[in-house]
Design brief:
The chain is mainly beta and 411 residues long. It has two helices and 17 strands. It folds into two domains: 2-87, no CATH class; 119-410, Lipocalin (Beta Barrel), CATH 2.40.128. The strands form three sheets. The protein has a ten-stranded antiparallel β-barrel. The longest helix has 15 residues, at 2-16.
């Protein structure tokens, strides 16, 4: 009987030595708990290293003596189980970087995140108010820029009005939503006067005179200064324009564009007067031309910009085109013989006038906190207003050229 028990015990040992037991554990609080690594701290270190690179692991089996319940207390030896532990992904926390400031091309968060891909182009991603002011050193130009004509015996000499660069403002105010759709109002004003021109008629350079034409050349008035007399001419210009537009922002890569569609309302006033004085200073003759243009019509605009690398600097281009249904009132005044004769002609013309503008330059964008962006632009601008009239007629083209300095804020 004793021998039979020994044989049975040996068979049990041999049978269990060929088996492998496995247990599953999910999301343990501590991977190196005594439950998983009851026999060796070295096994814990190996398990800990396995967790860093894979989602499951197998521990190296170790022999452990366990008490037997078979007769006589004969020890039985078991292999340690080989656990397979799937790792819960929620336990693997990837540290997120903290935002310390706003980088040149970072996205400013609003509510639940960034909604505008144009934040890297100096735009407020959360939408809101926008506005700015632009200072333009601008000079007018005319097709028929004539202050007076000197008529010597051979050949004539035309003397033009001289306009310098004067400061003129442009302001804009608008609103834009997160999707880039908005509204904008832009106001532009010019109020300039040319330098006064004065010439005294002398022998060999006489007469000195000026003609004014109206109604497409069908009206004509003049003032003459003969030998010893002096002809003096002056011209002044005022222009006001208001643009009311719906706008849409589009971006791609480092480029940004704002397209506008709306209506332009414009008014242009021109006043010219030439006077001939006797050597004693008495006013002898005079001629005047007063033009008052008012119009309104559709306008389209585009503002394009592109960043330079990863810097806050970039290029910009702006353009606008308008068609204005207009009415021009021209008043031509003539006086002869020291007020013995005075005449006034009035011509009212209705026409469609076109306008085109183009600007180019450099810009700089600077974030102000988390919800505003300051932009500064410097460049050049040209404008042309077709068929608006000039100092001596109602059909000349009016042009402007100038240097611009603009500062705006998106908030």
């Amino acid at each position: 009987m004793f021998i039979a028990r020994i044989v049975i015990g040996i068979c049990v040992v041999l049978t269990h030595s060929n088996n492998t037991w496995s247990q599953q554990y999910t999301s343990p609080a501590t991977p190196c708990s005594s439950l998983l690594c009851p026999a060796s701290n070295d096994s814990c270190a190996m398990m800990q290293g396995s967790l860093n690179g894979t989602s499951s692991f197998q521990a190296i089996p170790e022999l452990t003596s366990l008490p037997t319940h078979l007769g006589g207390g004969l020890p039985q030896i078991y292999h340690n189980p080989i656990p397979t532990i799937p790792v819960n992904p929620s336990l693997l926390v990837v540290p997120q970087p903290r935002v310390i400031g706003v980088a040149p091309h970072s996205c400013v968060n609003c509510d639940n995140g960034c909604h505008d891909p144009c934040a890297s182009h100096g735009n407020n991603p959360c939408g809101g108010l926008l506005g700015g002011v632009e200072l333009i050193w601008i000079r007018p130009n005319f097709d028929q820029n004539v202050a007076m004509v000197v008529d010597p015996p051979i050949g004539n000499k035309s003397v033009p009005f001289e306009y310098g660069y004067r400061l003129s403002p442009r302001v804009w105010l608008g609103w834009q939503n997160r999707g880039g759709t908005g509204i904008r109002a832009t106001y532009f004003q010019i109020d300039e006067a040319a330098d006064s021109e004065s010439i005294t008629a002398v022998a060999g350079a006489t007469p000195v005179y000026l003609f004014v034409y109206g109604a497409g050349g069908n009206l004509s008035r003049n003032a003459y200064a003969n030998t010893g007399q002096t002809l003096t001419s002056n011209h002044a210009l005022k222009l006001n324009s208001l643009d009311l537009e719906a706008t849409q922002l589009h971006c791609w890569r480092q480029s940004r564009a704002i397209f506008g569609l709306g209506v332009r309302i414009a008014n242009i006033q021109q006043t010219m007067r030439a006077e001939a004085f006797t050597p004693g200073g008495t006013l002898e003759e005079a001629v005047g031309n007063q033009l008052d243009f008012s119009g309104a019509g559709p306008t389209v605009s585009a503002q394009l910009s592109r960043g330079i690398g990863a810097s806050r600097f970039g290029f910009f281009a702006s353009t606008r085109a308008s068609l204005l249904m207009s009415e021009t009132e021209q008043r031509i005044y003539e006086m002869k013989g020291a007020y013995t004769t005075e005449l006034e002609d009035i011509a009212i013309q209705r026409k469609i006038l076109s306008n085109f503008e183009l600007g180019l330059g450099l810009q700089f964008a600077q974030p102000l906190g988390r919800m505003a962006v300051l932009s500064v632009r410097v460049g050049c601008e040209c404008q042309v207003w077709f068929d608006t009239g000039g100092p001596v007629d109602s059909r000349s083209n009016l042009g402007f050229d100038g240097i611009t300095l603009a500062m705006g804020v998106n908030y």
